[in-house]
Amino acid sequence: MPGYKGHVAGALAVVGGGLGAAWWLGVYRPEPKVMLLLAAVAVLGSLFPDVDTNSKGRHIYYGAALIADIALILKEQYRYAALLGFCALLPAVGSHRGWTHTWWAGLLIPSAILIAPMVVAHAGWQPFMPFYIAAVAGYYSHLLLDGEF
Question: How high is the pLDDT of residue 96?
């Protein structure tokens, strides 16, 4: 099983290949800043299944969550901050290689990316679909590298 570096590399390979294919086909051509955000989301998605263990991936994931939560609080986006905090606590409910290593969690956990804007800001989900896809791709790259598929 790969460590966090392997999972990060896997996520970057998957999201890079997906973005490259989408660009080449003319389906989706985001700005470079958005591509970097999509890569970051994919990496965080790839680290999520192992945040229930004491690992380097866990420290990276929770460090990013802490920074994002502080930024949301400073911007007075308390509902988003609370949702992020709730989602960050979810891995504590279960054992390692439990529910976080299932195909359905790979679809369900990133769905907060689509649901939060609809519930909190009454916004549409469509602009957030690329970020959801990146998170799912990163998550599934983790499961694939762990031999779950």
Answer: 64
pLDDT digits (tens, 9 = 90+) for 8-50: 999 999 999 999 999 999 999 999 999 999 999 999 999 988 8
Assessment of whether the complete model's pTM goes beyond 0.90:
no
Whether residue 60 contacts residue 47, with contact meaning beta carbons closer than 8 Å, is answered with: yes
In this structure, how many other beta carbons lie within 10 angstroms of the beta carbon of residue 63?
10
- Locus of tokens 């989301």: 41
> Among candidates 111, 112, 97, which has minimal Cα distance to 143?
97
Q: Alpha carbon 6 to chain centroid distance?
A: 16
Q: Do residues 118 and 125 lie in contact, with contact meaning Cβ atoms separated by under 8 Å?
A: yes
Measured CA to CA, the distance from residue 100 to residue 109 in angstroms comes to 9
